[in-house]
Amino acid sequence: MIDDFMDSSTTRRNKLCWHRQPNVGINAVNDTTLLHQAILEILEINFRHIPEYIDIVKLVNETIYFTAVGQQLDNLTVYSKKRNNLDCFTLDAFKNTVTLKTAYSTMRFPLLLGLSLIKDGQKKARKELIDIGFDIGQLFQLHNDYSDVYVKESESGKAGYDIQEGKLTWLALTAVPRCNQQQLAAFKEFYGSPDPDHAKQIKQIYDDLKIPDLYEEYESKLYREVLGRIRALPTEPERKFFLNLLGEWYKHAY
C-alpha cells in the first residue's frame, strides 16, 4: 500500500490500488498503521502462549523496518534532470534496494517465520539459505522491472511507470553505460519525465541497445546460478523447498 501510494501507482494485480479506491486517498497512509497494529494483535491473540512469540513479533517489526529502508533507498535513487544523478544507477545500489525493499519481505520473512515455529528452527536458518532466498528475490525484481516496460498491463496486472518516475531499474542501469553521446543526452533529458512520448523515446533507446536481449542473458545466468546452489544443498527437503519456491517466483511479477 505504501509503495503504491508513494509511486502514485494506479493498479496492482489488475485491481485499483488501495489509495485509488473511492473515499480512501491519503487515508491509505493511516490504514497501513492500522494494518501493522492488526498484525500485532493477531499474533498476540494466537501466539502469546508459546516461547517463540517474542521472536515472531521481532521478526515482523524487523521486516517492516528493513522494507521501509529499502523503500527509502528506492526514492533516494530516483533520477531527475534537475538532480542529474545517474551516478546512482549502479548494480550494487540496485541489489541493495532489491534486497531490502523486496527480498526481506517476500523471501527472508516467510522463511524465518516458518523456521521459528519448528524445533531448533533458528539453527536451521543458515546464511546460505537466506542468500538463496535473496537471489530468488532479485530474479523476481528483475522480471518486475522488465514487465514494467515490456509487458502489457492486462498481462502483468500492474501499470508501468518506472521510466516516467525515473526509477533505478536493471534496464536503466544497464542502458546508461552503453549509450553513445547522443543517446545519453536523450536519456538525461527524457528519463523521469511524465510525458508518455518521452517514455517511448527511452524505450526506443532500450530497443536500440538490445536491452531486452541483455536482460534475457542476465536473468538466465542468474537463474542457472541459483538453480545450481539449490541442487548443491545437503538435504532433499531443502532442495525440494527451494526448487518449489524458485518455480513459484521465477518470471512472476507483482
Automatic annotation (TrEMBL):
Nucleotide-binding in keyword set: no
Source organism superkingdom: Eukaryota
Transferase as UniProt keyword: yes
GO molecular function, one term: metal ion binding
Pathway(s) annotated for this protein in UniProt: Pheromone biosynthesis
Keyword line: Magnesium, Metal-binding, Transferase
InterPro entries for the chain: FPS1-like (IPR039702), Isoprenoid_synthase_dom_sf (IPR008949), Polyprenyl_synt (IPR000092)
GO cellular component: cytoplasm
Pfam family, one: polyprenyl_synt
Gene3D superfamilies linked: Farnesyl Diphosphate Synthase (1.10.600.10)
GO terms (BP aspect): farnesyl diphosphate biosynthetic process; pheromone biosynthetic process
Needed co-factor(s): Mg(2+)
Signal peptide residues on this chain, from the entry's feature table: none
Family: Belongs to the FPP/GGPP synthase family.
Full protein name: Farnesyl pyrophosphate synthase 1-like
Species annotation: Trichoplusia ni (Cabbage looper)
Protein encoded by which gene: LOC113501422
